[in-house]
Each structure stands twice: as C-alpha cells, then as structure tokens.
C-alpha cells in the first residue's frame, strides 16, 4: 500500500478544490424545497461548477455515473442518481455529495439538508451523523493509529442505538478521486497505519436509523438501507498538519474556524 504525502503546493491546490466543493453546497441550499426534482438540483450544481467555478464535476461519467452530484433521499444511503421522477417532499432528509476537480486536484464533501419542516427523527439522525464526523476530525493528528478514528465513530453512533454502514468508507484523495488509505468508520484492522503530516483523506460516516444492512438498486449505483430506515451522511476532505488537521471543505456555517489547525 502506498499513501501519497502531499506537498504544501499540493495542499494549496486542494484548498482551492475543497472550497469550490463546499461552495456548491452553499449555493444549492435555497433550492432544496418541497416539490423540486432532484434532476433540477443536479442541473444547478452542474452549471455552477462548469460555468462559474470553471471546474469539473468529478462524479459525471465516473465509472458510468450519469449525473454531476449524488443526491440521496431518506432511505438512500449513498450514490443516489438525480432524476425527474424523484421529487422532494416536506419532511424529507437529503444528502448532496459534491466532488470538484480544479487544476488536477479533487475536493470532496457532503452534507444533509432538511426539506421544509424537519421531523424529530430526521433531526436526531442528522445531528448524530454530523457529530460523529466532528468527533473524528478532532481526533486527527500525527502519530495516532488510523483505526482509532473508526472505533470512536462506531462507539459514538451505537451509543444512540443507531448503526454504521460497513460497505463504504472514507478514502485518500489528491490528484486521484480515491487513493490509499481506506478510512473505515468502525473498528477494524488498519494494517498498522499511523497518521502523518501531509496525509489527505475524507471521513464520511453513513449512519442508519435501523440496522447497517444495505441493498443495491437495479441501476447499479443507488444504495438503500435494507430495512428501509433513514440514513444520514456528512463528509469532509482534510489534511493532517503538524499539530492536528485542516478541514479543506469547511463551510462558513460550521463550528470550526476556517483554515485553523485542529487540536492545537
């Protein structure tokens, strides 16, 4: 296994790609309302990435994926394909997963949105999923074992009688969409990987209200919970610094200061 350590020049380009990805989530927010087609949301994101950001939507045609962003509603865990037939309804929860390529580097992020009036169940699920990501980010620093991150996420989520999806994980990122290492969100063997300065990867726990079992739809992409319970996911791209980590896809509405070292 070869983990690519990023140079400062690489990291600066990743900061730009990460900011662009987070900006897409910001501009799409006002359009997430009852009655909107997910295909329209995808179109708005696509046009913004291409025409305004002068960047590339990484998901478009990636291994045959037909759209520019993934939009996953309610019981869809990940890789939801935007379509004219999927129309958002009041009370839905929605994940939009955006990956942008700029100057050869990738920025990858996702967050949950509430459609109209949110439900108690939806709020609880999304809050726990987001907090599981945040506690993991706060752990990242040189010298720690990678597996401790997944162990902490799993323990936190299961404390609330929710479950973590096993089949999908975070990943190294940089000049490639997916690089080593794999970042699992549960306790598992990590091949003795120790975090070091310059490693860049995503953390993106997928949290189910029911059990962790999945089913893949006939389109070959859409992943749903087997028991039809709702699922939530939040994702950030980050790089390990000498004292902690820098979140490269940080949004303005989050409880971390932009471009600061976490764990100072």
TrEMBL record:
Pfam families: Peptidase_M24. It comes from Candidatus Providencia siddallii. A divalent metal cation 2 binds at residues 108, 171, 204, 235. GO terms for cellular component: cytosol. Its cofactor is Mn(2+); Fe(2+); Co(2+); Zn(2+). This is Methionine aminopeptidase. SUPFAM superfamilies: Creatinase/aminopeptidase (SSF55920). A divalent metal cation 1 binds at residues 97, 108, 235. Monomer. One of its GO terms (molecular function) is metalloaminopeptidase activity. HAMAP family: MetAP_1. It comes from the Bacteria. It catalyses: Release of N-terminal amino acids, preferentially methionine, from peptides and arylamides. Transmembrane segments: none annotated.
């Amino acid at each position: 296994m070869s983990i690519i350590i990023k140079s400062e020049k690489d990291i600066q380009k990743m900061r730009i790609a990460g900011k662009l990805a987070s900006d897409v989530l910001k501009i799409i927010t006002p359009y997430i309302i009852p009655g909107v087609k997910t295909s329209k949301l995808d179109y708005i994101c696509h046009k913004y990435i291409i025409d305004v950001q002068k960047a590339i939507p990484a998901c478009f045609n990636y291994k045959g994926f037909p759209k520019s962003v993934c939009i996953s509603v309610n019981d869809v865990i990940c890789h939801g394909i935007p379509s004219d037939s999927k129309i958002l309804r009041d009370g839905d929860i929605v994940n939009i997963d955006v990956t942008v390529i700029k100057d050869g580097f990738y920025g990858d992020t996702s967050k949950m949105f509430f459609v109209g009036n949110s439900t108690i169940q939806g709020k609880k699920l999304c809050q726990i999923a987001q907090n599981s990501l945040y506690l993991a980010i706060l752990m990242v620093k040189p010298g720690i074992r990678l597996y401790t991150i997944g162990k902490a996420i799993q323990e936190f989520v299961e404390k609330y009688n929710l479950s973590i999806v096993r089949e999908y994980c975070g990943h190294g990122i940089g000049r490639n969409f997916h690089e080593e290492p794999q970042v699992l969100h549960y306790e598992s063997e990590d091949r003795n990987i120790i975090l070091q300065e310059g490693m860049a990867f995503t953390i993106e726990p997928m949290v189910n209200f029911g059990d962790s079992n999945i089913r893949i739809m006939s389109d070959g992409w859409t992943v749903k919970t087997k028991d039809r319970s709702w699922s939530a996911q939040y994702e950030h791209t980050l790089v390990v610094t000498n004292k902690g980590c820098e979140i490269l896809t940080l949004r303005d509405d989050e409880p971390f200061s932009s471009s600061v070292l976490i764990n100072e």
